[in-house]
Specification:
The protein is α/β, with parallel strands linked by helices. It has one domain: P-loop containing nucleotide triphosphate hydrolases (Rossmann fold), CATH 3.40.50.300. Helix content is about 35%, strand content about 20%. It has a seven-stranded mixed beta sheet with strand order 3-11-10-9-4-8-5. α3 packs across α4 and α7 packs across α8. The two termini are about 20 Å apart. About 5% of the residues have low confidence.
């Protein structure tokens, strides 16, 4: 049964919610008339390290999600047409922008890649681009100069002005907009490297803090946040103890993959024993990722259009959709 958005706090108290809530089974039923555009091989190619997502989850969760986002995009396009007719203008439609937020290791990157593939297979949105906010992290040299290496991933570790400018330019319809490139191997910005977004139908922006609101300023200096340019947004959610364990599991796996590369920033970690790796990963989580999650990321969850709620097994258990 679909929930009406009221959550019981005590027997004598009811708090209204701006979300409609669906169990996984209820949400999956919405996909009956929607074709599944991906194969099992596609899913294996797109999922992140340590993310056990399979074709069944894509079918039950992401198929209806991609359809809903396509409907949202089509509706915005219809509104653009109506507005242009009213104003007597014939301006081209600007891209539909989707933000995806959530903790480190929660699966937001897999979510972003899957949606990019699925949305691009709908007739109304053949050109879908994906940009992660990692490219807008300040270079390590700058972070070290300002004593921020231990807070990498916190809002202050990004070039937020450049990120806002990038999103604003894409949203305003500029034909080509470039973004910096980040390497997870060297753990730093790649000097001189860029990716170029060329007027997509849909732009997906994935990052830890993309749902943060703007800072309060004076009336003469209005503040804008990246999220102000989003047409829809998704928050990938899970209990912190589960995400912590997923992070540790991923760290263990990385010893044999990315960490093993001689050019890896974390190459020294490849030689850690299992116990040493667990202790190191737990320390990083407890001192960096958990504080960032609790102070900066999790408080933005209620700002999302859609919340994907995961259980201990990394699978989506429920979906919460903001009422319109």
């Amino acid at each position: 049964m679909r929930h009406n958005g009221q959550v019981s706090v005590r027997e004598d108290e009811v708090v209204a919610s701006p979300f409609l809530s669906f169990t996984r089974a209820e949400w999956s039923a919405l996909a009956d008339a929607t074709p599944l555009p991906l194969t099992a091989a596609d899913v294996r190619r797109l999922r992140g390290l340590g993310d056990p997502i399979d074709l069944r989850e894509v079918d039950q969760v992401f198929r209806p999600l991609s359809r809903l986002l396509t409907l949202y995009s089509d509706a915005v396009g219809a509104l653009h047409t109506a507005t242009s007719d009213f104003l007597g203008e014939r301006q081209s439609r600007t891209p539909f922008v989707v933000g995806i937020a959530g903790s480190v290791a929660v699966g937001k990157s897999t979510t972003a890649r899957l949606l990019r593939e699925m949305l691009a297979r709908w007739p109304s949105s053949p050109h879908v681009e994906l940009v992660t906010t990692d490219g807008f992290l300040l270079p390590n040299a700058v972070l070290e100069e300002h004593g921020l290496m231990g807070r990498k991933g916190f809002p202050e570790s990004y070039d937020r002005r450049a990120l806002r400018s990038f999103i604003a330019n894409v949203k305003s319809g500029i034909a080509e907009v470039s973004a910096p490139v980040y390497s997870h191997v060297t753990y730093d910005i790649v000097p001189g490297a860029t990716i170029t977004v060329r007027h997509p139908d849909i732009l997906i922006v994935e990052g830890l803090n993309v749902l943060q609101p703007a800072a309060v300023r004076t009336k003469d200096s209005p503040a804008l946040a990246v999220s102000d340019y989003f047409d829809a947004s998704i928050y990938v959610d899970a209990d912190e103890p589960h995400v912590r364990q997923w992070y540790i599991n991923r760290f263990l796996s990385l010893r044999e993959t990315a960490f093993a590369r001689p050019d890896s920033y974390f190459h020294s970690f490849a030689q850690l024993t299992d116990q040493e790796a667990i202790e190191r990963a737990a320390h990083i989580w407890d001192t960096i990722n958990a504080p960032n999650l609790k102070r900066n990321i999790e408080p933005t969850r209620s700002r999302a259009t859609i919340i994907l709620r995961k259980g201990h097994d990394h699978a989506v258990q429920s979906v919460h959709m903001r009422k319109l």
